Each structure stands twice: as structure tokens, then as C-alpha cells.
């Protein structure tokens, strides 16, 4: 895979992390994951400051997490505790060994990520953001494209193919939009009613601001009809850097519905172009 920064998020630079380590990136990773677990288990609600200092409070929270996981509660982050902390990301990046088409794999990998509840800290920060954005994080790194390209890269890699035969590697919706225009894989919003049969689960949608300005991207998982109407107008999607309200700068990966008749949405067909 070319989107492989997640490997660095799943390991520490030391064989163990323990009390007394200060201003330490490994400690920050531990603290981030301790806080993320409240989104994975309803009965885990203990949080800790993300300051890189392994003090007494962090020690107490680590011991509580170890007890919660049925591990030796010695307060030292060794291999077993670290694997338990990062298990949601390990699950999301598990290889799918099934005989599926590229687009079916894209949908299945997207579902795998969704089940792991990826989300950020503050604005565009945290291990999930870094995994999708090749180590980058912060205000200037909205991660919807990073999420989509990571999932597509997993599917392409599974089939032993090359990512750049399909898409340019980028964080920009505009770059993908221009690429799709060049290779005629873009279906404009006004064309969708007549060309809807071309849209398949595994393709992607992009929100349109102007004709050459796209602002958000997500993976189409279903093309569905509105109840009691014959016209197809809805896409069911899985998107990163959004939320249940559909905000562009959201905080999680979630499932949404997009109506291309009421919103300006283009579709990029994921096809080999080289």
C-alpha cells in the first residue's frame, strides 16, 4: 500500500511505555487511545490529558484500562496492552481475503473502517487522522479525501494493482475532479438522472461549490430509490471528516444519505484510466 502511515500508528518507538516518561510522543499516543476507547465501549468513560507526560494520573488510567481488558494491571504499556489499545485500527486495516471486484472491496473496506468508529481530536487531529493523512494533522488538513483514498488504496492493493492507474494521490477534491474530467470518469450533477445506471457502489461522490471547485468526498455504498417514487435520487454513503448533520468539517467516519436532486453532487466512477 502507498497509504501505509497507519503502520506507524500501530507501533511505538520503545518496547514499553511507563511512568516517568515526559514530553514523549509514545505517551501521547497512549493517552489518545485511552480517550478514544469511550467511543468503543459504553462502560469505559475514563479520560486523561494528552500532554505526553506519563504521570500518576496516566498511570492510574492505564491500570484501569488493563483491568478493564483483563490484562496484568502493572501500569506498563507493553505489547499486549498496546495491541489492546489500538485494536480498532488494526481491525480497520485487516486484509479482506475474498474473491470480490474492486468496487465491492471498496465498499467492504469502507464498512470495516466504519465499524471501528474512526474520529478526530480537536480539529483534524489524532491517530486516525494521521493514518489517513500520511502523518499530517491539524487545522489545515481536512481528512475526507485521505479517508476515501486510504479505503480505495486498500482495495486496489488487495487486487495487486496500482493506485495511480485509477486516481492521483492527493488530499484535494479539486485534483480528483480535474483528473476525472480529463479521463471522462466524472458524471456531473445535471447528468445523473439520465446516467444513474452507471453509478455503482464503490464509486465516490463529491459536493460541488462551483463547476471546478469540489469541497467534500465520500464513498457510495448504495444507490437507492425514494419510497413510493420511481426516480432514483439518493446515495447511501460512508464518509470521513463529517458527522450526522453532514458537516464538511465534522469529526468522524459515518454513514449518510445524499440526495443528488436537492444537492449539487457529482460522481467520480472508480475505473482504471491508465
Report on the structure:
The chain is α+β, with helices and mostly antiparallel strands. The chain contains 10 helices and 6 strands; from the N terminus they run αααααααααβαβββββ. The protein has a 6-stranded antiparallel β-sheet with strand order 1-6-2-3-4-5. β2 and β3 form a beta hairpin.
Index terms:
274 residues; alpha+beta; 10 helices; 6 strands; 34% helix
TL;DR of this structure?
The protein has 274 residues and is α+β, with helices and mostly antiparallel strands. The chain has ten helices and six strands; from the N terminus they run αααααααααβαβββββ. The longest helix has 15 residues, at 144-158.
